[in-house]
Structures are given as C-alpha cells and as structure tokens.
Design brief:
eight-stranded mixed β-sheet, single chain, globular, about 35% helix, 8 strands, 10 helices, alpha/beta
Length: about 280
C-alpha cells in the first residue's frame, strides 16, 4: 500500500489541477493521496469529482504558522472544512497573501528586478498566491535558474532581501483549532534548514505536549542523518512518523510517491480523525 500525505495543486502553489493531480497519483501507483494545499480546501471538490477507482483521497490543508519569528507549516488532515473557527483563521492567512506578494514585488523592484503584479497573478491563476509564484516569476525573468534558487537570503527566503511577513497562525492555536474541528496534525518538514530557520527540538516537545500527532520525517529536504534523528525524536515524544513527497507538479523536482507513509501510521491517523473521513474513489469522469 503506497500512501503520500502531502501534495499541492493549482488551488495553492502546485502546477497540476486538483483533478489532474489525483489522476497522476493513480497513474503513479498510489493507493492513498492527501491534498494539502496551503491554507485552503478549495481543491477538494474537484479532486473528489474525478477520483479514480482504487485511489483514496485524504482531505487536508497545510497551515501557515509562525513560532518565535520562525515560519513553520502544519499539515492538518480530515478536519471538518466548515468548522467556523478554523475557516475564519484560514481566511485571515489567505487574505494576507495578496498584499504580501505585492510587498515582495515592491522590494524586488527596488533591487532592480522588473517583476510585476500582473506577471505573478498570471502565474498564480486561481490559486492562493504565495512565494513560489513570485519565485516562478524570477525564473521567467532569468534572475534565478530554478524556483528553489529563489529561496535564498539574496531573494525570498525568510529574512531575505525581498522577504515579507504575512499573517501566520500561532502553532499552538492551530493545534487547538484543528483538534476542535476533528482533525489530525503533523508538522511538515520540521528540519528543512534549506528553507531558512527551523524550530528547535525543544519546541517540538512543547507541541507534542499540546497535542501534535506526528512529524513528517521522510521528506526530500531531510538528509538521511536528519531523518534518523527525527525518527528517534518522534519515538521519544510519542509522535507518529509520516513520509510524503510534498509534490508541487513542475514547480519542484519531487515526484508523487517519492516518500510514503507506513500503512499502520495512516490507519492511526484515520482512527484519530472525527471531522472527516478518507474518500475511496469510485471512478470519476
């Protein structure tokens, strides 16, 4: 059983539509895929409408959080998408994305980069605009060779020359909101230091005590030694261990199913959830 619990579509910063993503997931031989767009569940209906037979969809979102000035992402699975408190918080984060992107564009213009809002909006399409869309604009302009090369201190990484903060949820509040909405939480790529500063292990212990269910260990941004250390930490803290691709379509080099989650861990996630349930595909149109 092959299970990938972290993917993105055009509902946020991926390049595949939700429908295209689930079709690719089935073609890649996955049995279970989670759609976890940034701070939105907008792609779920489209994915469910065409969900291929033999593929199960786990509904979720990747929530933008910040702790002591350090950005972090919380994967939330199988929560009630209509829960008013969690929905209101997600909308606060989403609504701040446009002024943040425009602020980054202004900083890039001051650095001599001729990126425009119209260019970034075209790249984002109907998705929630984010740094990867600005990064893609830099690639189009020939400023950097790849999206990953834009996430440096020179450009868009946390604290970088063109970085702008946005509204991000306190992770302890996010844990409470997701739990109240019947969901399950996993801290995404907690040691992905290439992206910028990461939360200290002492914070992971505090998050575990506050109700965090698991950490994403097997991820393209974690070296083998890092994965081994995180696996030991998870055992010490009583946390579930997941593995995922963090697939973004052509915007990143990762592929669907590059890392996967153990079926027993997936089973425990589904047992803990009360807000929603995995949906098996019936063969979509």
């Amino acid at each position: 059983m092959r299970i990938d619990l972290h993917t993105h579509s055009t509902a946020s910063d991926g390049t595949d539509t939700p429908a295209g993503l689930v079709r690719k997931a089935a073609a890649a031989g996955l049995d279970v895929v989670a759609l976890t767009d940034h701070d939105t569940t907008r792609g779920h209906a489209e994915a469910l409408a065409v969900l291929p037979a033999g593929l199960t969809l786990v509904t979720g979102a990747e929530l933008s959080c910040r702790l002591d000035g350090i950005g972090m992402h919380l994967l939330a699975y199988l929560f009630d998408p209509g829960d008013p408190a969690l929905l209101a918080e997600r909308e606060l984060v989403r609504d701040d994305r446009v002024p943040r992107a425009k602020g980054m564009i202004a900083k890039l213009n001051a650095l001599g980069v001729p990126v425009t809002w119209e260019q970034v909006a075209r790249i984002a399409g109907d998705g929630s605009v984010g740094r990867p869309h600005v990064a893609s604009a830099l690639v189009e302009l020939g400023v950097v060779p790849t999206v990953s090369d834009a996430f440096t201190q020179e450009w868009l990484a946390d604290g970088g020359r063109a970085y702008m903060e946005k509204h991000e949820t306190d992770p302890f509040e996010a844990l409470r909101l997701v739990k109240d909405a019947g969901g399950v939480t996993v801290l995404a790529h907690p040691a992905a230091s290439k992206r910028g500063r990461t939360v200290p292990e002492s914070a992971l212990a505090a998050l575990a005590e506050a109700g965090l269910d698991g950490i994403e260990v097997d991820h393209m941004d974690h070296e083998p030694g890092t994965r081994a250390r995180l696996r030991g930490l998870a055992k010490e803290l009583g946390l579930l261990v997941t593995g995922s691709s963090d697939y973004h379509g052509s915007r990143k080099t990762c592929v669907l199913g590059e890392f996967t989650t153990d079926p027993e861990v997936y089973g425990e996630i589904t047992r803990r959830a009360t807000g929603a349930f995995p949906v098996p595909g019936a063969g979509g149109v």
